[in-house]
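Weekly sync notes, structure subgroup
Attendees: PM, AL, DS (notes)

Item 1: joint prediction request from the bench team. They want all two components modeled as one assembly rather than separately. Inputs as received:
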Amino acid sequence: MLTQSPDPQRLKTLINADQIDLKNDAELQAILKAHKISSEEFQKILKITERAPTMAELGVYSAMWSEHCSYKSSRVHLKRFPTAGTKVVVGPGENAGVVELEGELCVAFKMESHNHPSYIEPYQGAATGVGGILRDVFCMGARPIANLNCLRFGQQDHERTSYLLARAVKGIGDYGNCVGVPTVGGSVSFDATYNGNCLVNAMAVGLINRNKIFKGFAAGVGNYVVYVGSATGRDGIHGATMASDSFEQKADRSKTTVQVGDPFAEKLLLEATLEALDKNLVVGIQDMGAAGLTSSSFEMAGRAGNGLYLNLDLVPLRAKNMTAYEIMLSESQERMLMVVDPCNWPALVEVLDRWQLPHAVIGVVTNSGRMQIEARGRLEINLPVSPLTDEAPVYNRELNDVYLSNADSGALEDLQLQLQEDSVFASQLFKKMLKDVGSKKNIYEQFDRHVGARTVLDSDSGGAAVLWIRSDETKDAPYLGLALSAGCNERRVRNNPRIGAAQAVLECAKEIIAAGGLPLAVTDCLNFGSAEDPSVMRQLSDSVDGISDACRQLDTPVVSGNVSLYNATGPENIHPTPMIGMVGKVADIRRVTAARISSAGEYLIFKLSGENDSKSTAKLVASLAAKNAGLPAEEGRIADIDWDAEKNAAKAVSILRSAEIAKYVRSVGDGGLGVSIFKTCSKMLAESHSLEILTSDAGSFFGETGSTYLVCLTEVDVSRAQAILRDINVSLELVAKLYGRKENFGTMPDRSILVKTYFGCFSTTELLKEYNA
Amino acid sequence: MKKHSPANGTIRVGVVQFPGSNCDDDCVDVVRRHFDFEVFKIWYQLTELPKLNAMIIPGGFSFGDYLRSGALAAHAPIMRPIKEFANRGGAVLGICNGFQILTESGLLPGALLQNRNMEFICRTVHLKSASNSILSMPIAHGEGRYWIDENNLSELEDKSRIAFRYCNEQGLTNQTANPNGSVANIAGVYSENKKILGMMPHPERASDCLMGGSSDGLKVLSEFFNRV
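Output from the run, pasted for the record:
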């Protein structure tokens, strides 16, 4: 049946590979340093190995115990996440989290970082980030139906920003477009904190039947270990280790550690994998992602409590003379490791051949509990499995209590005063803010947002994405939808990690609520600075608590996630950026509301707020206005979240929806009321509409408050809206009017169309120029 | 939702599947939901077609767009029977990558080049049909700039073979309404017998007002199937 069959009996005949020379201390120290293995960790390695390790074994330890694979610095904190819930089907620890959507139909999703490779080589870095997260989702048997991405770049005028942005966006687009998964949402922003470390976080979402979820188990002694997909090359060796380190000054020297993606190969792998899983031809499966063959083989064996025998001479290679070390650590893309019952092998081969995928049986499952790997007649790796997977080092690193360096210089009060009184200053700041948030049209138009023919709302709608879920499992719910949102306001987390991280979760929930969904569950991607900096670890720890606070309040458990540490250049750490991805359920897609007006007409725009306006004093703290006025994010302290107010506001939005009154709804977040109103109307402003913003209080116009939504009504519905909200503790205040005609409010001699605000009048073209720059 | 029914007998629609096709399921889905037809996929390696009345070559990245969009698919085994089917007067609809395959294989004139701005473009556009109605539906392509020489262009125009031109909301086919730099704003063309239609916009993605606010794609599909 097999031309070349892996035979564990060969183990008896193999010569042992050379061990590292422990006596040559200088060389040993150099090797350990290159592999980022501490001397304590090396002592543990010697104990587990019971002799000096071979180079290949050391490479395996280095990868398995890297921050990226082992979460050794974050694990003690991640345990505090609320992960249980009635809708949770698969929680953290698997390739992706799974929650129930409707009956047997479930959603598998996860977000992951590809920050370090994207800074070094943005096109491939971002593309392979998309590829990796897609494989995490489809190797469980889920068909991917949506991609999102959260991108952070340095300030807009930084020399590297436009290059990184353009190439990362192209990489994401080229990959997702080709695989045929729509890219429907996410967030992009710019801040000097990312000048030396950009963030590229990709999220993938798939659909799966609860009874057909596959996990990465190397079960069944005697089963084949099968390599499927692109041949292995030297690309990406040590990617996981690289991603576990800060950049020195010369980040672009490490280009060889970046993987190269092939979305066509991914598409074939996707179809073949789903077909093989659907036909039950596979026992266990895992993506060869970070740390490639090493992590996939060890993790699958570890979960099943088995051992594996592998013969690396059978691995399809595309580079000559690759060593065992290189083969084990390569991060070549578009590869899967499968465990297959030999009696299903012919049927699997038929599927793989039809999709033109390279494949090879490279080993068998054993009951030894050991990973025994040969190459060219030598036993290169002979290690017990469970100590590597279960006994990875765990560090409860030092936390610094004085990270809360919030200043209170009075600068925010000064800013508010100046905005209120100096209209030239205020109108210039408004334009600057519009340029900073900017239209993302040039970005999202490069993403196929409609393939799959499910897209109801996407990035162009301005808020959460909504997909129409039509499947065999949902015949009784013909208008079922899935809402998706992702993002994080890093300035607020920098100001106060606990409150700021909670707000990141809340903002996603608000976007989903504004669109018409009910939040279900959360994935996270924790982007932080150096793990060895106690103040960074304090930020991480507090962010975990903040996310947990919000997830408990919203009943949205954390079901998957990823940690990216060492986002630092030299001593400069990025702002803590715990990116949140959230999924929600939409009961009836016919009632969703976009956040951007797209239909001509007259609208009255109301601010719906759950809290009494007068009590919020901290509106400008860490705001977009403060940032653009040159104030640091740590100036002042952001207000605590008023959860009762949030719940009241959300309830009011849902009541308006049931009454089918609200035409468009937006959650007000970054940029405050003025910017949010402008964004809501931007499409129509380009089509000869005029806008009048009525808010005269600078704190309200420029500041950022909680529990606030914009709801767009037509005049006939206003009294009805006020009546049905009478018994709920929310305020409804008219803040803007959008006129469906050219209007210059009698203030300008020429006939240019206007946006009129208390803080200055603008021609529409002037504002759109800043916004679309 | 009222389904469109055939006048006599069941119409059988085949959707070709190449490695890298990614709108095949969407095309099957739209036919199944809105038309009372039998619809099935056709694998690219077949050398004979099953019995069918119409076929759709869907969008995607057949063979990863290697060499040139549609170039490798144009030489796949299935293309021979497709050409025979077309030559017998069979109805063939090529959407996006399907249009590229039809021009690459010579079933439709012209070529599709990289967009004028060198970038992939996904947006909802307006189209003016040969019968002067204005339709709205999305495009999503990197190589959709239709090119044809002047002689052949005038022949297309003389014989009313230009199926769709990019236009603005009012129906003006000016340069601002041309997303990719296509010659004469061309978004889709017919074969001489009008049975073969190639178009860059995606009618299957505009099949329901709940998705993107337009169901104009159904008009395009109905009209195409009426030619069967």
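Discussion: The radius of gyration of chain A is 27 Å.
Action: AL to compare against the crosslinking data before next sync.
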